[in-house]
Amino acid sequence: MAHHPTRRTRQAAANDLAHVVPKHHVLVRLSHWVNVPLLLGLIASGLSIYWAAPVLLHPPDPVTGSRDYLRDLGLAIARALHDAGGDQRFWLYDHLSLGARQLAVALRLHWVLAYLFMLNGALYLLGLAAGGGWRALVPRASDILDAFRMIRFYLGVVPMAILRRPWPHPPVHSKYNALQRAAYFAMPVLGTLVVLSGWAMHKPVQLGWLERMFVNYNGARIVHLGCMLGLGGFIVPHVVLVIADGWDTFRSMIVGWSARVRQASHE
Amino acid sequence: MSKHRAPRAPRRGWLAERPEGAIAVPRRRLAAQSRRDFLFFAVGTLAAAAGTWWLLPDRTKARLLPKTHDRLDTLAARVGLSRENRERALDRALSFDDDVAEALYSKDRRVRTYSRSEVTPLRNNYDGRTPGPEYLASWSLGLSGLASGSDQRLSIDQLLRRFALHGQVTRLVCVEGWSAVAWWGGIRFADVLAAFPPAPSARWAALRSSVNLDGAGRPDPYYVSIDLETARHPQTLLATHLAGRPLTLAHGAPLRLLAPMKLGLKNIKAVTDIAYTVDEPADYWNERGYSRYDGL
Asked: pLDDT means per 10 residues in chain B (296 residues)?
């Protein structure tokens, strides 16, 4: 780079400018990606812990003897897939967790990852604050109607493509549409709740006030499981919509900017 | 830029989202930054993949990649991601969690108590076969590591005659995740400590059940470590009664530890010996990969 630009180089530099929209603070990007292995590891080890003593129980099944809904579901899937490898009752645990009978190692992994998850969550909140990105997540009154518009749009995408009719995306006047905002706002909320319910279960005596916030010990367990389902369930539509939206959206979470200066993005 | 909510006044509230604006950046700088960010992303992905493989339990790895897991392990060990290092790292994380727990601990904090109407069924969670009843007739509690220098053996009648019975309804929380509220009765560990003081240098109690059995019914002594501060807690009992009746074999007759501020695995059943020690004694489940502090 020339430190004393002549008229010609100044002209060239001006022609060589790219226009981009800054999207995500560096800490938000970093914590987003670090979350991927952490969350997967927490879910896998968490389900291995859950296997040892499920909290959602039904009376014992007369045939299988199972009291655990996740065992029933795993058995149903294994039978539907004619999967005879391994213990069919533990199909769900064998495929989504570290496996059955792994409590000691699952607990150790869960604590390690949980501390990293809290640290990473703090980095994310710091990034939201530093970059001002949190303002795009604040719910607003117009979100209710806009959310219905978005649901109507998503329901119509495939049929209208088949019918070859135009099906314009509802106008979006901010960084996110109403459904995105609801989902992205829910993530830090669920993240906070999963940490609080985790501590309530981990130290119910020293943090008795926290345990009481979830009514009792099992209350904290159920909230913890529910948060996991919320955080884990978010991953599927999130990934599908990012793929549908394209390279620019994916790249923006790595480099921080979007080259879409005129269009809105719809990840 | 088309993303303006145009008709509104420009000055909006503190909560209001700021409109996104495009900035002009020299192309070369943008390219260099993107290169750097993607390189960082790629290195991070590789590191996360290696780290994940390293931390996975051996049995999970064997199930995931039955043919190649050994070769990958050898490769990982060559860059320092060995099994030994993994165990060391996980142990260090456990110690950190124990330190956090100890920082949270207050000896004056009481465990939450319940009313008798809130009692829930308590399962017999003996890992092996439930022992007895042969041992009951000859059972006595041995005390060693005392200040007096001589050991003591006390029968259940001697203990119940000498020490006052206390009742409490508390929750027992198992490491597996289940828990149960139960009405316990027993003598205070603190009272036994006052009557038979340990040697002044002792910091720990090693509790042992020599009648414990494994799954095949063979002798498999069970032992836990308890720090004396926890033992002196007023809610730490040497429990002799459950639901108003003497303990059954399933729940550790005739005497078990009830330390409701510790996980159930510390609440050793059918205690036969208590030894006071200077250093932290061995703990059965700690030797099998669990934490040894286990404070709730």
From this structure: 51 78 90 94 94 89 87 87 89 89 88 93 91 91 94 94 96 93 96 96 96 91 95 96 94 94 95 96 92 89
What is the rounded distance in angstroms from the CA atom of residue A230 to the CA atom of residue A199?
18
Cβ–Cβ under 8 Å, residues A211 and A147: no
Cβ within 8 Å, pair A203-B101: yes
Looking at the 3D structure of chain A, how many domains does it have?
1
User: Is the same domain home to B115 and B234?
Assistant: yes
Q: What is the span of the domain harbouring residue A262?
A: 132-267
* Verdict on whether the full-model pTM lies above 0.80: yes
Supply the DSSP string of B230-253, one letter for each residue.
HHTSTT-EEEEEETTEEPPGGGTT
Q: Buried b / exposed e across B34-58, counting CB within 10 Å, b at 16+?
A: eeebeeebeebeeebeeeebbbbbe
* Nearest by CB: B104 against A16, A112, A207: A207
Kind plus residue range of the DSSP H or E element containing B25: strand B23-26
Q: Which residues of B touch A218 (CB under 8 A)?
A: 179
> Strand, coil or helix: what is B17?
coil
Q: Please indicate, yes or no, whether residues B171 and B276 belong to a single structural domain of this protein.
A: yes
Question: Total domain count for chain B?
Answer: 2
Q: Is residue A67 part of a domain?
A: no
Is the separation of the CB atoms in A235 and A242 below 8 Å? no
Cα separation of the two ends of chain A: 37
CATH number, domain with residue B151: 3.90.420.10
Q: Do B23 and A16 touch (CB under 8 A)?
A: no
Q: What pLDDT digit, counting tens, does each position of A118-150 carry?
A: 999 999 999 999 988 888 888 888 888 888 988
Q: Which residues 130-189 of chain B have a CB within 8 Å of chain A?
A: 171, 173-179
Is residue B168 included in any domain, yes or no?
Answer: yes
Q: Are residues B155 and B33 in the same domain?
A: no
Instruction: Tell me which residue range forms the domain holding B39.
Output: 27-81
Question: Does one domain contain both B70 and B132?
Answer: no
Tell me how far the alpha carbon of residue A140 is from its chain's centroid: 21
